[in-house]
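Protocol step 4 of 5: obtain the predicted structure for the target chain.
Materials: sequence only (see below). No template structures provided, no constraints applied. The aim of this step is simply to have a reference model before the mutagenesis design in step 5. Sequence pasted as it appears in the construct record:
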Amino acid sequence: MTLKPGIQYVVMYPNDKLAFVTRDGGRVQVVLVVNELTEQEAVSWGAAHEPVTMPTRFRIIRATGTAFAPNLANGWQPTFEYDPSTGLLVARDDGTGVIPSTSLALYPRFQGCYVTVRYAGSNADGKLHIVDHTTRKSLIAENPLADVKWSKVQYISHDDGIALEASPAVAGQLLVCDIELALVHPNNHLAERYQGGN
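Step 4 output (structure tokens):
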């Protein structure tokens, strides 16, 4: 939970522990007020504070400057590791193919997500492919993407995949793709897609 200037609430179970992490060596003041809740108060608080799912951000780094290629016949599951310095899930991977949505969004079945991508170090030729799992047919969602520009937001279902395509601007330089996903709740995903004109 990222601390913000406004008042924030957290509910804890008995024996839970609370830790604060500050950065940049600066001194900060944290005012902590602890109140014990009855079961009724805890239920009332929970009903008034709907859980929020934060977007997840992934980064794939091509250390050798290898181009991203869609390779639609091939499956690809990069191994991501959490980088606490950036708050991103990072993979150093030169693989190609279709990344299944289940490798990026660990949501329950039938819960899709919105996705957007950005390339950095590209030749301003980035593409995002939305791929059907069964037929491996794809739609190029946006083409071409300017370097360091986020793509338009696309919807992918629980059994879709995405494929990446971009070449490095300079041979041998780093080429990076950032992927950001946000959960779409089943009760509102069609309404939100309708309002967005998708």
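Step 4 remarks: The chain has three helices and ten strands. The radius of gyration is 20 Å.
Proceed to step 5.
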